[in-house]
Design brief:
18% of the residues lie in helices and 44% in strands. The chain has one domain. A hairpin with a 2-residue loop joins strand 6 and strand 7 (119-123). The protein is an alpha+beta fold and 149 residues long. The radius of gyration is 18 Å and the shape is globular. A three-stranded antiparallel sheet has the order 1-2-3, with no helix packed on it. It has a three-stranded antiparallel sheet with strand order 5-4-8, with no helix packed on it. It has helices at 2-18, 126-135; strands at 23-29, 35-47, 50-61, 71-78, 81-87, 112-116, 119-123, 138-145.
Amino acid sequence: MKKVGIVLVALFAAAFLFASPPGKGTYSTRPGGKVSSLEVSYNLSSLMGEAVINGIWKWDGTADSLPSDTVVWLKVTNSMGSAFIKIDSTVPKKGAWSYNTSGSPAWNKVLYQGYNGNQGQRPVDADTAKAFWKQGFQVTGATLSVSVN
């Protein structure tokens, strides 16, 4: 019986170390223009030492539709500063939720210092991204963006 207890404690400790979520929740904003509201539901976690990103969103406004290359950029902030995480899901119809599956990009493609349209600009290096992620953060903004040609 003692052996089973030790194994369970070890499994619990491993799950805690390898699957601690830095952020899960929703963020709502009013972008303006033809998009009057944007709601993002995100789940940002880690598994076995790798970042796991998932997010879906819905919008409303006077536009009939959004371009197919529209993405959401989440602004995340902690004591190290601010960065952006790309939520690259399907583009939903007005009032409907998008669809997305969890992804695990390389650490040097998790956080960006900025963006231009749907492309991240000035990626944060892997070591800094890991430290930022480990510290935890808050989602402090969300922006819709499309490619800029």
